[in-house]
Amino acid sequence: MAARAIAAGLLLLLLAGAAGAAGAAGEDVEDPIGGFEDEAGSGDETRPDDLGGFDDEEAVPERPAPGSHPLRGESWELTGSLGLAGSVNLLPHRSVAGDTDYQGLSKLRSRLNLQLDLELPWEWELRAAGFAYYDWAYRIRGRSDYTSGVLRKYEWDADTQDFWLRGTPIERFDVKLGRQVVSWGRSESLRVLDVLNPLDNREPGIADIEDLRRAVTMGRFDYYLGDWNLSLVAIPEIRFHQNPPPGSDFNPTPDPILAPPPAPPVPLEIVERKPDSLEHWEAGVALTGIFEGWDVSFHGAYFYDDQAVLQSTAPLMLGEPGILQHNRLWLVGSGGNYTLGSWLLKGEIAFVDGLGFTDASNRSRLDVMAGVEYYGFTDTTVSLEALNRHVFDFPATPSVGSVASVAQEDATSGAIRVTRSFFRERLDATLVAVLISGDDDVGSVVRIDAAYDLREAVVLTAGFVLYQESDLPPLSTYGDNDRFFFELKYSF
Length: 492
Prior knowledge:
The protein is mainly β. It is built from 4 helices and 23 strands.
């Protein structure tokens, strides 16, 4: 199924490319990587947004004269967006917890994003950004059909995103304090070095990693010397992944967990121990060199595993509460990019220590990622990535609470991404496939979508997400979750 979905997506891109080429006859040939200038590796230099000091922030556009726009002033600017997003599940399936029927409309979400930028004295800057949404699908279908956990996680939400203060108190030294995102990774779809920010995993496959990272309060301190940048990060706020709750179509686990037969179905308590913010800090350091045509970086981090692990199954068998714990991890690693003509070669390697499995702890893992991107086609980018995670001293029975992505001694995964723009970049089409190898088969998540500029500041996005089951979680339960999705968004 995954191969057919990828082939169909490539065929659609090729057919659309032919139509776009016909419609552009007689016009000048555009830059072959036009529309993807934000990707690392364009031209003859690589300056990854995630490692070049504060280069990961979007450039603030030149403001018009004060008073010419109601949302802009001489030293401030208010921007944002209004959107309506929906999903329709294509196949009949029900959850175990709550026995919810998930075929049909599963999301109809209205969302408001706001961002305020202030220019402060002495060239300091302040950004405050947040969002709020409400999902009308639950009222349309009936709130009583869903578990309380699903309603808490999906029906409405509001949170801050970027909320920081930054400046340059002395020459070559930058400071940035507050909620922010620090991305260390080169990969667009697979995570190796990118460990400082948790992800919003409530709707797997719908969005890219760059849109899923949750901002965390941290202090970032950057020192620049020639081609090198030393970055220190101190993180007092502890936040973890937002995962699907029991009762959602992405988590069929019964709630509460029942004792296995032949014992009577006695509800068992699972307690998750979360470290307290301010009392348990995380930290990271990165040394980055950016040169003509290539870059390299070295990383170290002391952080908590975002995935909680069930310490032992013994208490559950005795009817006692089980303990989910977030293990302290150490990471040392390196990454780099190298451009060669229209090619970008990239790689990451990391050694992680302190991993926990159910009834087994203090394991180590080596992660190696290699990837290549090609920009030689007009208005098109093609990216291939492969990742292997090897667990040393792999436990004999690592199941139950183990991290799903490393529930094998050698876990392999890959990603394919094809993006193409048409009609002078008014239409952007994307095919993304993430493949995860199981013990006996390969599961996948394939997304095919297109975003079209209906008019200035109004974008319509629509596409499909297709899931192929494997014998490993979480894809072992995703097989019936194929869906059509759309979003209409107005930006101001």
